[in-house]
Design a protein that fits this description.
The complex is a heterodimer of chains A (60) and B (523). Chain A is an all-alpha fold and 60 residues long. Helices cover 82% and strands 0% of the residues of chain A. Chain B has one domain. A four-stranded parallel beta sheet of chain B has the order 2-1-3-4, with helices on both faces. Chain B has a four-stranded parallel beta sheet with strand order 6-5-7-8. Chain B starts with 29 loop residues before the first helix and ends in a 19-residue tail after the last helix. Classes of the chains: A mainly alpha (60), B alpha/beta (523).
Amino acid sequence: MKTIGKKLLLILLKLCLFAVAGLALLFVVYFFNLDMKLTAAMEPVLTWFYDNRVKRDQHL
Amino acid sequence: MKDENRIGTQNLGSLYTDGRVRSRREWRGVVDTAYDFSRWLHNWITMFRVVLVKPRNIKAMFRYRWMASYLAVPMMIDRHTQGLRNEHLRICHEEQDLIVEDVAKLLDKLFRGDRRIGNDKEFSSKVVLVDENEMQSIMMGFPTVVPLSREIASTYIPVLLNQRAALHYIDVAQEYGLAGDVCPMPEAEAGVSIDDDAPVLGCCAVQCNTTCDGSLMGNSVISKRLELEDGIPVFQLATPLRHREDDVQEYAAQEIRNAIAFIEEKTGEKWDWTHYFECAKRVNYATECRLNWLEMNRTDYPQVFGSNLALYTETNYMAISGRLKVFEDADRKISALAEKAFKKKRMAANEYRHRAIIWGVQSHYYMDFLVWLLNCWGIVPLTDMLSMVNTRMIADTDTPENREQAIYDIAWLTENMIMRNRTHGGYKVLLDELWEFVEEFNADMVILWEHMSCKALDGMHGMFEEKAREKGIHLVWVSHDLFDPRVISRQGVRDQINSYMRTVMNEEPVDPSLEILNDAESW
């Protein structure tokens, strides 16, 4: 029982560490605006797609 | 009036770059930064949960040009929360995060029914398309019908997110011969339709003669495609413009009866009075909250003002119209936060120097201008024209008399849609009542948006100036072109305030780093 308890504690500890590391990483993304820098880089790709790959029935 | 204890609210201009986005997010102190971080995370989770996990929505991302603007959602929130701390930051997130979720759901529903994307025919058969500038009070008695606005998703929100979002559509409309000096909002909406970039869904549509001749022009282009090509019948809700006159009310009510009959016929659903009166109670609660916030803004410690008041009122009053309980819950939370902040005499910026009423139709590509006014020059935007809408309580208990009154109430709300209740209806609603508000709010300044393509307002230019001189009020004109920053840039907008404050008021900015910003390329 003790070994199982220890193992569970260890798994819990690891999960906590992962969660904290994940949150810290997300905070870096948040604070340095990395999400917006990435989406800004995606904009020209999408624009190219709209200009060249989408067929439209453009008329009045 | 000064507040010296605010953390990190100096040199906000240093966060700007020459490109699309800011260099980093604001440091607001440990508690407020942690709170803002948690809301940022919440919004990304909402966007993934509602939109991004569904393959059909990804398909739509690669089909519709306006979808690219939604890449900028978190930045829009950052723009509106700039410099905010404590309760003001929480009020802003309470509103903005709810709007993000509501718009995410709108996109998801549009693509679910869209013949090109999800093509869910059963769902589409219960969808009624509504105009962008249309009070959705007409839908308060249809709980099982889904009102969706394609224009809110394709033009209105994208320009809030990305100042250049509508340029392609304005150009397309003009390439097909539509006049260049018409309001760029309906012009862009028409451009989306011409460019074959609007989702196609719904069993019918209701268009409204909401704001102006430009709006009617845009609607005619859109309805032609809807009716003649997509096979979607359109009802034209012709609401009277002289909305303060008693003799137009019967006609307005009959238009509402006709619109309801049209929706019943096309959807096969019946008007539900129980649901209507439930929604009416929520409309009254929203009105009561708004009046309380405005009452607070008459004091030295305004709490729900600027873009916190403007954007939320537009959404809650016009697009929600009591139909969703979550907005009632948000009203309650915002009121509680505002009361708390009021008791603590909280300020939303480092310094308050002037109390201003913002009048006219605001620049859509620069909605966070109100935040800039506050942070850069200490000008407190107490209220704005688009937030000064209906103050009447509508009938909210189900009786035979109230069922008749309800039709008049819906008509009244439709006539008093944001913007149209001031830009139409005679000079009393546009001109005289402004000066009443100036006195009521103890304002020393009026910031008057001059939307260059809005003929309804441009004709009154001289009358505004004459009255401001007579009353000794500082009147600052701020020209813009609503959806088109190529005509007047954001810096062009700011320069008009900067020149007035330096030359007429002889003042230095509270935050000089915000005076000149190179944000022409920014979202």
